[in-house]
Amino acid sequence: MDGQWFRRFGDPEPDALRLICFPHAGGAASAYLPLSRSLRPHVEVRAVQYPGRQDRRLETPVADIGELAAIVAGKLAAGEAETPFALFGHSMGALIAYETARILQERGARPPRRLFLSARGAPGPRPGPHDVPADDEAILTAVRRLGGTGVELLDDPELAAMVLPALRADYAALATYSWTPREPLDVPVTVLCGDADPVVAVEEAAGWRTYTRARTEVRVFPGGHFYLDQRLGDVAGTVLRGVRSASAARAGNGARHD
């Protein structure tokens, strides 16, 4: 796979399923290092590294959900002969993961075994009220409200200035994203959310049920928007059961893509 876009943390087992992970707004591939360690060796995590962060910080960030999804979908479709995969997206990453799955389905390419959508409500024709901060200070306020590891670093003006270009692009992508009705996915979906998330109610997350014809399960964990930082073992267990279940179902159906 393209090492510029997909980052791997360690060597997987030969028969490990691949999990493509999409970071949250302002996030980078390294956000999935803990999950990768928890899933190893059964699942190989490949985290997407968006332009404009970490070692890609000198590149111009992509401020469009659909464009990011199209790039990733194109790279996944080009690897038809590679390992079967599932998709996992957290917060903004859930939208990119969903759009990636939708593009793959529309192109008739190999579909993901399962789609994991975390800390994000089902999309609609307009952005959510928390997706359109008015300026840089509003962006930083929104990020602080969500919490997460290292959020206190934003109180340092120099560090905040370093991450703001990526945050501006990501919030611009959220503010301009508009879901358009199309055929539902044929991919099983697992929705994950925290019971105390300040911006995503459980019922909003459960709204993803109508976006696929396949089975949807909703898992609610104690915690806020970044519940997975505290519930890593439970999240890893949910992912592992989900990918194994989807793989078994595919094998039983004799799907042509596998």
Mean pLDDT over the residues: 91
| Helix fraction bin | 25-40%
Number of strands: 7
**Ends distance:** 18 Å
Stretches with pLDDT under 50, minimum 5 residues:
none
Q: What structural class is derived from the secondary structure elements?
A: alpha/beta
Q: Count the DSSP helices.
A: 7
Using the alpha-carbon principal axes, give the shape.
globular
Radius of gyration: 17 Å
Please state how the strands of the largest beta sheet are arranged side by side. Answer: 1-3-2-4-5-6-7
How large a portion of the residues is in β-strands, by DSSP E?
A: 5-15%
> What does the largest sheet look like?
7 strands, mixed
Organism: Streptomyces osmaniensis
Keywords: Hydrolase
Protein name: Alpha/beta fold hydrolase
Domain Thioesterase TesA-like: 20-243
Based on the model shown, name its key terms.
258 residues, 7-stranded mixed sheet, 7 helices, globular
Compact summary:
With 258 residues, the protein is α/β, with parallel strands linked by helices. It contains seven helices and seven strands. 36% of the residues lie in helices and 14% in strands.
Write up this protein:
The protein has 258 residues and is an alpha/beta fold. The protein has seven helices and seven strands. It has helices at 33-39, 65-77, 92-107, 136-146, 157-176, 202-206, 232-253; strands at residues 6-8, 17-22, 43-48, 85-90, 115-118, 189-194, 216-221. Strand 4 (85-90), helix 3 and strand 5 (115-118) form a beta-alpha-beta unit. Helix 2 (65-77) packs across helix 3. It is globular. This is Alpha/beta fold hydrolase. Keywords: Hydrolase. InterPro entries: TEII, TesA-like, Thioesterase. Pfam families: Thioesterase.
